[in-house]
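Troubleshooting entry. Yesterday's outputs looked truncated, so today I'm pasting the complete records for two proteins to confirm everything comes through intact. If either block looks cut off, that's the bug. Protein one:
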Amino acid sequence: MAPTLSRRGWGAAALCWLVLALVQGPGLTVADTKHDLTANPWGFLQQALSPWTDVFPLGQLQNQAYGYLFPHGLFFAVLDPLPDWLVQRLWWALLLFLAFAGVVKLLEATRVGSRGSRIVAAVLFALSPRILTTLGAISSEAWTIALVPWVMLPVVRVLQLPGRPSARRLAVAASGSAVAVLCLGAVNAVATLAAVVPAVLWWLAQGVFATGQDARLRRRTAWRFAAWWVPGGVLACFWWIGPLLTLGRYSPPFTDYIESAGITSYWFGLGEVLRGTTSWTAFLSSERQAGYALATEAVFMAATLVVALAGLAGLAGARLGARRGADGARRVLPPFAGTWLLMLGVGVAIFGLAGAPFSPVAESVQSFLDGAGAPLRNLHKFDALIHLPMVVGVAHLLGGVSAPSPFTREGLRDAWAHPEKNPAVVTSLVTIIVAGVATAPAWTGRLVPEDGFRSVPSYWQDAADWLNDEENGAADTRTMILPEARFARQTWGNTRDEPAQALLDVPWVVRDAVPLVPPEAIRSLDGITREFSPVNAQGRNPALADALLQQGVGMVLVRTDLTQVADTPGARGVLTTLTDSAAAEGFTEVASFGDDDVRIFRVDGSGDGGATGPRVVDEDDLEVTAGGAEVLPRLAAADAAAGRTPRDRILTQDVPSDANSGSGDDPVTVTDTPALREHNYGTVTGATSDILAADDERWTRNPVRDYPAGVHEDDMTQVRETGGRITASSSASDPTSLGGADAASGISAAVDGVGETAWRPGTGSPINQWLSVELDQPRSQMSLTAQASGGPLRVQATTYLGEETVASTTMVIPGYREDSSRLLLPQGQADRVELRILGAWGSAGISQAQLTEVDTGEDVTPRRDIVVPSPGGVHQAPGRWVLGQEINEFELRRVITVAEDTEVTVNSDRCAAGAGTVSLIDGESVSCGQRVTLSAGEHEVRSRDRWISLTTPEYAAAAEAEAADADGDRVILTATTVNEGRQASVDGTELESVTVNGWQQGWRVPADSGVAALSDEELLESLEVEFTATDTHQRWLAAGLAGALALLLAFAIALVGLRRGGGGRPDDPVDACDPDDPADLVAPDATGAETVVTSTKTGAVGRVLGGAVTLALAAGIAGLPGAVTALVTVGVLVGAPALRRALEKKSTSSPLPLRALWRVTEPVSLAMLLGGLGSILMVRGPWGSGNYGNYAGHSWAPELLFIGCLTAVVYAVVVRRRGGD
C-alpha cells in the first residue's frame, strides 16, 4: 500500500497545522490548563516534586501536579525563553499534528479509505468537537485524545503480522505503544486511562477473541505481545501511579464539592454523543468560544450531525462513488468493521447508560459516579471511543470518490469548472463544505478562549516581589487575597488561576472555586470572607484583625482589577472594611502598586512573631465550642465585646472520645452552626441557602448538601416543622438562584411573622410559581390571610384533600405596607392550600400566608422554627450561646434549649454603639447587658443584630479566671490544615495530632511525656514536622524516571535491532490479508469492481449475541420504548426483504413506490433516514435556543430515532454482512 503522504506532504501538513495554531489570537496568552506553565514553568515543576506545600492556600496536598512533569510541563519549561503565547501555540500545533498524523497512520494500517479520504478523516478527528472544545482551555485533555491513535497503532500492526512474529518485532510494537502511553502524561489519570481503552479493545477483539482460520495463531500472538506490552505499560505509568496513590490516601474528598455526575452527564443524549459534544463545560461557559459555538449554534449542530451520520454510513458499508459488483452490490464493509463497531458500542454504552435522558439505569450509574466511581465522573474523556470509529467510517465512505485534481489545467477546466458533469467533484465539494462548517471554529480563529492577555501587568510582579522580600515579614505569615473569586478573571485578561500563584514564594490563601483543603477549612475561609462582603461592609466586627491572626493571616492583598460579575464581588466592600469601619483599627496599609490596582495591608499584631509559624498554647486554654469553623470570626467579636482576647477553640466534633480536651470543666460555648443549608459549589458568593428542614427539596446535584463540618445532619441547626409543611416551586434562597441565594427569601419567610422578609420565587418569571401549605390534618373551613412583599399579586388559591382538588378561587394579595387580605376559602375538607401566582405588579413575593380555622379561630399555619441542638459529645454544660446571621436573614430566629433554670446576660454586636433593645426572647424585649432568667425548656430568640450572645455567670467567671497551673498538657498549633499524613516530633518523641479551631493542625505535648520539661521556646526550636509520604513520593518519581528511561532505551535497542536484523521498519505495510476478521475485507474482482470477502466462521451465535447486546443497550438507554424501537427496526429490516421476495414471485416488476420502499428499508438507507430525522429535530432545538425547555436533546423523538439508526448500523455489520442489500 502506497503511503498517504510523502515526506514533503508530511512537511506541508505540519506547516498547515502550525499556521492554524499561530493565527489563533496571535500575541495573546490564554488560560490554558495552568497559568504556571507560561508564568513560571520551572518553578511549577519543582513544586511538583513534593506532595505537600505550605505555600498554597492554608497548606495543602497538591492535586496531580506531578502529572505535568512530562510531557506538558517539560515542553513549556524547555521553551520558556520564547514568548508565552508562542509556546502555547507551538504546543497546540504539535497536538493537532499528532492527532492528524496518528489517524492517517492508523487508517493506513487498517487499509481504510483512499489517500484523500484518509486526510479528510484525519482532519475531522484533529478538529473534532472534543478537541475544539478543550484545546484552548484545557489542552491537557485534548492531548490524550490526540495520542489515542498512537497508542493503538503498534497493537493494530502487530496483530496483522502473518505467521509467528519474532520476539524482537513484538518487543518493538509493545514498547512503541508503551512509549505513547508514557507521552500521555498524568495531568489526569482517568484521561490517560481513557486513551488506552481503544487499544485494549482492539487487542481483545483482534487477538484474545480472534476468530477464523488463523485464530489460534493470532491469539498466541496477542498473549505473546501482552507479555511485552503490560510490563512496558507499567514502566510508562509507574512514575505517576505512586503519587496518585498518595493523593488518594491523603487528599480531602474534593470530588464531592466539584461538578456532580448529574451535571457532567446532563448532555449525554444520543445526538450529542454521536456528534461528539459531550463536554459539559461547553454548554455552560461561553468563554470557550469554539466549544460553546458547537454546543449551541444550529449550523454547527447540523454539520457535526452530518459528519456523524456519514461515519455511521461508512461503518455500515456505504461507499460513495463505488461501482457495483457482479452481484449488484454497492455496500462494502470497511476492514475490521466489527471491531470498530465494538468500540463504538462500548462508547455508546458508557455515555448512554450514564446520562441518556430516558435511561432507567442512569440514576444508579450517576450515584456510583458520585460515590466510589467519582474519579470517572467526567466520562466525556472517553470520547475517542465514539469519534475514532466515526472518522474511520468517513474515510471508508469517501474512499471510492476519485475526483480529478483541481491543481491541474485539465482537472480545473474539465471537471471543477463544470461540477454538474462530474459526480465525484460534486461529492468532493459537498465534503469540503460540510467539513469546513464542522471545523469552522478552528479556521475562524475561535480556538482561543475569551479574554486572552498580552502579559500580566507589572504591578502584580511588583507586589509579589514586595511580599517575597524577607524584610517585609510576609514569609512569617500568610497573605489573604481579596476579594474572593471563583476564577481569576481580570479586566486585563483571564488567567483562571491567581496571577500571584506563580509569583509568590510566601504562604498565601484565596477563596476560589474549590480550595483543595479539608471542608472544615473551607467553611472557616467562608466565615472570614463574609466579614468583608458588601452586606457587612460597615464592619461591625472590631475583632476582625484578631480573627485573621487566629487563622494565620497577617497580610491582606486587595486587588481592584477583577472583572465584576454576578459571582465575583468588587473590592469596595473589602476596602471599606479595612479603611472605614470599626474593624479598620486592626489594619495598616503598607504598600500599593499600579494605580492602586493592588494594595497590601498588614494585620496589626502579625509582626509579633508571625501568624503562620508554630505556637504553643495550654490545652486548658482551648475553649470547647459547639459549632462549625465558620463561626470563629463571630466568636472573636463576642469575646472582644466582653472585653476578652479571642481564644483558640476545640470544636465538640474534634474532641477525642477518650479525652476531656479543652478547658477542663469550663462551660461550653454553643452556636447555631453548622446549620443545615445547601451550597452551590459552582460559585463563591451567594452560594448558600437559608436554613432548611431535613426534607426540604434539594436543588444541587452533588453528593453532599454543603461542606461537611464533622457533624451529622441530625445534629445541625435546622428547621423543625410542626403542624404540617410548606413547599414551593422554587425560592430566591435556593443556592442555584441567578445572582446568588437570598436567605431572607426562602419558604420560611412566608410564615415567620416578619413583614420585611418574604417567599420570593427563584430565577425567571414568577408566573405559575407556587407556594403550598400542607397541614398535618384536614380542616373543614379555613380562611387565608396574605400579604405581598412588593406590588400586589393575583393568585389562584386551590385547596386539596390528598391528591384530589377540592375547590379553587382567585384573589388579589395587597402589596407591602398595605393591609393584608383575608379570603374565606371554599368550604370542604382540605389538608393543603396552594397559592399559584397568576399575575404580578413589580417584584413578586408573599410575606405573609396565614391559615385560620374559621370555626375555632385557631391559627393552623405550619411552623418552621429554627432549632439549635444541645451540644453532644462533651460532658460540660452550656455556658454561653452565641447566635448570628452572617448570611443575612434580616431577622435572626432561633430556638434554644435550656436544661435547667439559667440566668443569662444579653450582649450583641450593637451594644458597644449604645443600642437599646437588641432582641426578643419569647416575645419579650431585652436590652444590652440585661440579665434574663431562662426556665428549663425551649426559648425563642429573635434579633436583627448580626449576632447576639447569652452568657451565664459560670461562663463569665471561668473566662475571667486564669489557669490554675501551667503544668498541664500543651498543644503546638500551626495555622495550616490538618492532614493525617503530617507528623511532628520533638527530640525524637512523636506527638499526637489534634485539630484546633476546626481545621488547624495541632500536636499534643502531654504533661507526662519526656519533653514536657522543655519550655515553649525550646519546644518550637526542637519541633520537626514532615509529610510522611514525601520520601515515598520522591523515590517513586525517581524510580519512575528510571523506568521511563529504561522503556525508551529498550524501544530504541529493539528498533535498531529489528532494522539491522532485516525485520524492516515497524510501520512497513503488512502484506498478509486478514480474511478471518469479524468484519468483511475489501478485495477487487477481475473487473476492478469491489466485492466482499467474508469470514466463514461468523454465524448464528455471533448474530444472536450482537442482537442481544443491541437490544439490551437500547433498553438501557431508553427503557421499554428504546427496546421496542430496536425490535421494530430489526423487524422492518428482516420483514421488508421477505415481503419483497414474496411480491416478486407474483410479479416480475415492481412499481416505483415499492422500489423506493425497498431502497429505504435497506440497512444503510434506513439508518440514514432515521438518523436524518433525528438530526433535523436536534437542529430545531439546540441548547440555549429560547427557553431551555425547548432543548431537543432531552426529547423522546430524536433519542428513539437515533436508537433505530444505530440498530440498523449494527444489523448491517453483524447480520447482513454481504453486499447487495
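Protein two, checking that the full record survives here as well:
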Amino acid sequence: MPINNYTYTPETAADFFAELSAAMRLLPDIAGVYSAFNRVFRKCIDRNTEAVSATLCGAFAKTDYLLKEHKAARSMARDINDTRVRLRKRGDMTADTLRAHCLQDLENLCRFISLLYNTPVPDDLRRLLPQHTDAEKTDDNTAGRTELPDYIRMIVERWDDEYVYGHADEPCGHDPLKVCYADTPTPSGYNWAYLRNLLGEGTQLNLVRPHCKEDIIVPELIIYEPDYLIDISAVSRCFTNYAESPLVNLISRLRPQQSTEHTILGNFAGQLLDETVVSCRPESPQNIQPTTSTPKPYADSVKDFFKTHAVELLTVGIAPEFHKNAKAQQKNISQSISNDLPGMVSRFNPTEGMVEPSFFSEMLGLQGRMDYLQLDFRVLLEQKSGKGDFPYEGFVVPRHKEEHYVQLLLYMLLIRYNYRDIYEQNNRELHAFLLYSRYSSSLLGLGFAPDLVFRAIRLRNELAWSEMQYTREGTFRRVLDTLTPERMNMKNVSNTLWEQYQKRQIAETLAPIHSATPLEKAYYYRFLTFIANEHIMSKLGNKTKENSGFASTWHDSPEEKRLAGNIYDNLTLLYPDATTDGSIATVTLQFHENAAGDMSNFRVGDVVILYPYAPGSEPDARRTMVFRSSIEKIQADNISLRLRAVQSDSRVFVRYSGKLWAIEHDFIEASYGSLYRGMHSFLSAPKARRDLLLLQREPEVDDTVTALRGDYGEFNDMALRVKRAKELFLIIGPPGTGKTSFGMLNTVKEELAEPASSVLLLSYTNRAVDEICSKLKAEGIDFIRVGSTLNCAPEYRDNLLSERACRCDNITELRRQTAEARVYVGTTTAFNSHIALLSLRQFSLAVIDEASQILEPHLIGLLSAHCNGVPAIRKTVLIGDHKQLPAVVQQSPDVSRVTDKQLNDILLTDCRLSLFERLLRRYRNDESVTFMLCRQGRMHHDIALFPNQAFYAGMLTEVPLPHQVAGLPETADSDSGIDRILRSHRMAFIAADAPEDSPSDKVNQIEADMIAATVKRIHDMEGDNFRPAETVGVIVPYRNQIAAIRSALDGYGIPALRAITIDTVERYQGSQRRYIIYGFTVSKYYQLKFLSDNVFMDSDGSVVDRKLNVAMTRAKEHLLIFGNPRLLARNHTFSRLIEFAKEHGCYFEDRKLFLQC
C-alpha cells in the first residue's frame, strides 16, 4: 500500500457513484437524499476545478466550465444545470416536488460524473434510472419559457461587436442567450460597447431588468462579475475633477492614510447626525410625528468621540476653531432633521428610520452604507461635512459635487432595483437628499440622473475588471511603472487645485516607485499581487477551502452554511421589544431549540451582519438592509450583539415582528487597505531598513555589550544575545518552551531596565495579546493596549487606549499619559489600522509573538514606519515556531510561489511564508541573532517523545516539572477499558473502525461515541478536581464532528461536560489541557490531503506535520488519539505515529473492551 505525505488521489468516479448509491438507500428521507446529492455534486465540481487557474465563483461557473471542457451536448448541459438549481433551492421545495425529480436528478448526476471521468455508470445505479424514449429527448430551448426575471446571471461564451452569447444560471426560456450590448444607447448616446474590452470567456454578467426583442435579450444594466461587490464610496471617489477612472482608486489605495482636522471633523459630524436622529422622540408612542428633539449635550458628544477616535486626535493638531465649527455643524444638522426636512417631506419621521444601514446587492455588484434611511424606504439622507462644489457663496446654500451626487444616485439605484417591490408599493416615492452640514441651509434634494448612473455603473464595472487584473503577475508593474500625474490628468485640467495640490499629491505617491531599485520593485510588486489575490479570494472564495469567500453568503444554501458553521438562523428577537424605551445599542436573539451551536464558527468579538427574513423562506442578506454588529456574548440559548450604529428606537427592530433573524460573518475591506499602504510605505522606509529586510546587509550586533541589568537565571544567555543585537533577533519557541513567559517577558524586562526605552508588543490574535497582557499584569508592568473592547479580555479593558481616553479630561492629559506609557500592546491588525501611532511614539524595541503565523505584508508597514528618517521601531525581536501552524493563506502554492530569481536570492520563494521563516532560513545558524528555546515544561516525557523525535530532531528536553516525570499507578485494574488505558499509559493510539453509513464524510459516529465515553470516564476519575477549562480538551478536524461529539456527551446528562472545549486544531494553538483527545475522524482516502495540508520538509531533513505537531503538544499529562489505522497508515507521518504506538505498547484495537465502562 503506498505511503504518501504530499499528494493524494482525489475521489474517483467509483467513490462518487458509491455515495449516490448510499444516498438512495436513505429513502424515504427525501431531504437526506438531496443533501447527499448536493454533497456529491459540490465535491465533484470542486475536485475537478482545483487546478484551474481561472477564477470560478460559485457552482454555476464551475459547472459551466466543466461542461464546456468536456464538450457536453446542449441538452445534457441544460439537464445538469436544472439539477444544480434544484440542489441549490431544495430548501424552498416541497418533499413531493423533490420526490418527483429524484430519479431524474440521480440520472443527471450519474451522467455528469460519467462525462467528467469518462467511465460508465455502474449497473446497480443504472437499474435505478428512469427509462426514456427518443421522443422524450429534446433540444427545445423555448421549453418552459416564462416571463423574464428582474435579472439574469449569465456566463459569457463568446461575443462580437453587437452581441454577447452565453448561458443563463437558471432556466429563463432563452438558451443559449443572445444579448445586445452595443446597440442599446441611453438618451445621451452612451452604450455598453466598452464591455468589449472587459469580456473574457467565462466572464459572469448580470443582465438587469432584461426584456426580449425577437429572442434577443436587451437589459437596462449590465453588471460585470457581480459577485465582486464594489463599495459605492469607492465608485464615487473615482469621479474627480481631473479623471474618471479606476486608476484614481489605485492611487488612493497606495497613498498613506493621513488623518487631518477635516477628516476628524467629518467623522465627528457623522456621529452628531446619528445622535440627532436618536434624540428625536415622539411625545407618546401613539404620536406618528416626532415633536421634540433634545440634542445630546455637546460635551457628552465630544467625550464619546474622544473615546473612539483617540489615536486620530493624538496625532493631529486640532485648531482652536474646531469646536466652533463642530457646534455650528451640530446646529445645522439639528435644524435640518427637526425643522427643514419635516417641512419638505410630510412623511418624514426620524424615529421610523435606520441609522447607517448597510446593504449587499449582488444584482448590481455593489455594497455600501447609507447615513440614514427611513424604514419605509421613502427618505434617504447622505451627509457631507465638507465643502460642496465651487463657488461656496458664504456656505449658506450648497452646490453638489459630482462624486457626492454619484454616491447618492447609486443608493437611489439600489432602492429602485434591489428593493423594487418596496419602491413600487411606495408609488415610486423616494426623497433623496445630500446634507451638507457645513452650510446653514444644509439640505439639497436631488432627482435621478440616468446618464450619470450609467457612467457610475461603467466605472463600477471597470473597477471590478481592474481588481481582477491586479491578481495577475506583472499587472501592477505594467500600470505603475509608467504612471505619472500627467497621465492621470485625463480631463486636461490646469486650475489651481490641480497644479498646486492634486498633481503634487499624485507625484509624491508615485515617486517612491519610480526611484526604487530593481530588487525593491520586484519585492513590492510581488507582494502587491499576493495581497490582491488574497483580497479577491476573500470576496469570491478559494479552491482550497469549501464555503469560502463573502460571495458564499448567497451562493451557499442555508444547510451548507450551517455545516460550515457560517450562519446562525431561525433566531427570534428577545431584546428590544415593544416596551423598550430609548435608543438601542445592543440586540439579543434566542437560538432555535434544535440549533447545533457547537458547529458554529463564531466567537465573541467577531464582526457580523444581522438581518430579518420571513419564516419558511431562505435567509438572504441581499433582500434586506443589514445591521452591522459585533458579537458581545454567546450563551447556551441566546446571543447578544453590539450594533455598529446605535438605533433611535426599538421600532427599527420590532417592526419585523413575526420574522426570524439570521447572523452571518461580515467582511471588512479596510483591513486590506492597510496592507496595500503598508507595502507602499516600504519604498519610503530608511534605506538601511529596506536593505535589512531584503537581506542586502547583515543585522548589526554590538559585541561590546557584556552585562545585563537583570538576572534571568537560565535565560541569561538568551537575554544577553538579544541585548547585543541592535536591529534584529529571532527566538524559536517550540511547544511548551515558554516563548511568551520567558522569551518575550525576559526580553521586555531587560529592555525596560534601560531608562529611556519603550516597547511595542505585537501578536496576530487577540487571544495571544490577552496572554501577553496577563504576563505584564503579573509582573506589575503598566501598558496601553490598542484595540476594541469586545476583542479584549475583561480583566485588561482598563488598559485600552479608548478607556484611558474616557478617564482624561482633555487631549493634553491623554497626550501626557500616552507619552509616559513605556509599553504598548496590540494585534498587528490593530496597529496597522492605527499606523499614525508610530509617528507619535517611537519604540526602542518591538517584540512580535506568533511571528511564524504572520504574513510578511502584515509586518512590513510597521517595520517601515519612520519619523524624519529614523525607524519608529529601532530593534525587532521575532518569536515563533515555523513547525507549528503557519499563517492562514487562501492562495494555493501554485499562485503564491515566487519564481523571480532576484527574489529567490533573498530567500523569498513563496509569499505564503512568514517573514520569520524567511529570516530564519538566512540566520538559522547565526547565534548572534538566533536562539532556540529547548526546555519544555508542558508535556510529560512520554507524550513529548514522538513529536520531539519526529519534528524537533530530539532537541527538546523536559524542565522537568513534577507532572512531566510523574509515574502512573502501579495497578491498572478496572472494569473499564478506558480506565486501564489512562492508568497505564500517558499516550495511547486507539483504533476506530470506519463507519459503514454516515450522513457526511465529516462525521464519524464511532469515534464520536468513543471520545464521549472517554471524556465521561475522565470526569468520573477526576471527581471534584474536574475543571472544564483545564482538565480535558478535544481536537477534531471538522465542525460536523464537534457537533456529533457534543451530542454524544449530552447523552450522559452531566452539565460539566457541556463546558469543555471541543474545537479544531487551528483554534487550539496556544492552549493546553491536562488531557487532550485527538480524533482524526476521517474515513476516506481523499481526506488525508486535508489532514496533512500543512506538511513541509525542514532544512534538517525532517518531515514536519504542523497540524499533528500542534495537536499532540497541547497535552500535559495524557494524550489519546483515535483514528482508523488502515487509512492513516497510507500517510508517511501517521504511519510512523502508529508504529511508534505499537513499539511502545500503547496501541489498542479492541473497541468492545475499550468501550466497557
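Both blocks look complete. Sanity check on protein two: Confidence is low (pLDDT under 50) at residues 133-145, 283-288.
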